[in-house]
Specification:
Number of strands: 11
Number of domains: 2
CATH topology of the largest domain: Heat Shock Protein 90
Shape: elongated
Strand order of the largest sheet: 6-7-8-9-11-10
CATH superfamily of the largest domain: Histidine kinase-like ATPase, C-terminal domain
Bound molecules: adenosine-5'-triphosphate, magnesium ion
Strand content: 15-25%
Helix content: 25-40%
Order of helices and strands: HHEEHHEHEEHEEHHEEHHHEE
Number of helices: 11
Length: 293
C-alpha cells in the first residue's frame, strides 16, 4: 500500500484536516472597523463571530455575538472593533484534524475557532454548524469510523447500518468501495469485495435490526465482516442454497429476495463463513485475497 493512497484515505475520515469543514471567504476585519459594520457583516452573513486581523491578515482577536451584545447594550456602535474584541483568541492551525477541532471547541465551549496558516494568517473559521453539517453528512452516508493499527499494517473501516433504512441502502458498501479504491486494489478484486459488501449490507437492512459492515485491509487480503443484531438464521445451510428466501412480498416488490445474496457472497470470496444465533444475530465473514500488482 503506497503512502499517497494512505494519505488520501485519511482525508475522508474524521481524521481529515479542519480545512474540510472551515468556512472561507470571511471578509478581513481590522481593529479600526466600526462595530456598526461588524454588526452588519454578522447579520448579513449570519455569522456568530468574526476573526479580527491586522492589515496583512494575521490573527489578532475575535468579535463574537457576546462581544456585540455588550457593545449594543452600551449603545456604542460607533466604537472601533479594538474596544470590544476578545483577545487573545483560541485558534486552530491548518493541519489540525476534525477530532482536535471538536475537542478544542468542547473544552473551551467556543462555537467558532479561526484557522490560521503557519504564518498566523487567518484562512477560515470552523463554526459549530459547519462541523455539524460535515458530521451529519458523514453519518448519513455511513462513513462513521476508521481505525488504524499501523503496527500490523492493517487499515480498517467500519460502517454502521440500520435495519429497514432503505433510504440509505447501499451507502455503506459504496463508501467502503470508494475507500478501498484509494488503495490501488485491483479492479477485479474490488468488484468481488463490492458484491460481498453490498449483499451483506442489504441482508442487514432487510432482515436485521442493526449492524455494521467492516473491511480490514492489509497487503495480502481484504476481510469483510458484516455483523448484526437481529433474528438470526435458523438453518444456515438452507439459507446458503440458491433461491432460498424468506423475503416478504413488499421486499420482493422492491426487487430483492431472489435468494441469491449469500450464494453470491460465497462465490466471490476465497474464505467464507456464516455464524448465526437465532434471536441474537448473524455474522458473515468473507476474505478476498488480493491480486499482486
Ligand atoms: N443478516 C441476516 N439476518 C437474518 N436472516 C438472514 C440474514 N441474511 C440472510 N438471512 C436469511 O437467509 C435468506 C437467504 O439470504 P440471501 O441473501 O441469500 O437471499 P435474499 O436476501 O432472500 O435474496 P437476495 O439476496 O437475492 O435479494 C434470507 O431470505 C433470510 O431468510
Ligand atoms: Mg440477500
Amino acid at each position: 500500500m503506497d503512502l499517497e493512497a494512505t494519505n488520501k484515505l485519511e482525508q475522508e475520515t474524521l481524521s481529515c484536516s479542519v480545512e474540510k469543514v472551515m468556512v472561507r471567504n470571511i471578509p478581513q476585519v481590522t481593529p479600526y472597523w466600526q462595530m456598526r459594520h461588524v454588526k452588519e457583516l454578522m447579520r448579513i452573513r449570519r455569522l456568530d463571530g468574526v476573526p479580527i486581523t491586522d492589515d496583512e491578515g494575521h490573527l489578532l482577536g475575535i468579535i463574537s455575538i457576546s462581544d456585540l451584545i455588550i457593545c449594543i447594550e452600551n449603545k456604542d456602535l460607533e466604537a472601533p472593533v479594538s474596544k470590544y474584541m476578545t483577545t487573545p483568541v483560541k485558534y486552530l492551525i491548518l493541519n489540525k484534524t476534525l477530532i482536535e477541532a471538536l475537542r478544542e471547541m468542547n473544552r473551551f465551549k467556543f462555537g467558532r475557532l479561526p484557522v490560521v496558516d503557519d504564518k498566523f494568517k487567518v484562512i477560515g473559521v470552523v463554526y459549530w454548524w459547519s462541523l455539524f453539517a460535515f458530521l451529519q453528512e458523514a453519518l448519513d452516508t455511513g462513513m462513521v469510523v476508521k481505525k488504524t493499527t499501523p503496527s500490523e499494517g492493517v487499515i480498517s473501516y467500519t460502517y454502521q447500518i440500520l435495519g429497514k433504512d432503505f433510504v440509505h441502502a447501499g451507502n455503506a458498501s459504496l463508501q467502503m468501495r470508494k475507500s478501498l479504491q484509494q488503495l490501488s486494489i485491483d479492479p477485479k478484486d474490488l468488484r468481488r469485495i463490492g458484491i460481498i459488501a453490498y449483499e451483506a449490507e442489504m441482508n442487514i437492512i432487510i432482515y436485521a435490526d442493526r449492524g455494521s459492515l467492516q473491511a480490514k485491509v492489509n497487503s495480502e487480503k481484504v476481510e469483510v465482516i458484516a455483523e448484526d443484531k437481529g433474528p438470526g438464521i435458523p438453518d444456515v445451510n438452507l439459507a446458503l442454497q440458491e433461491g432460498f428466501t424468506t423475503a416478504p412480498d413488499y421486499i420482493r416488490e422492491m426487487g430483492f429476495g431472489a435468494g441469491m445474496g449469500l450464494p453470491n457472497i460465497k462465490r466471490n470470496a476465497d474464505i467464507f463463513q456464516v455464524d448465526s444465533r437465532v434471536g441474537v444475530g448473524t455474522k458473515v465473514y468473507a476474505v478476498v485475497n488480493l491480486t499482486r500488482r
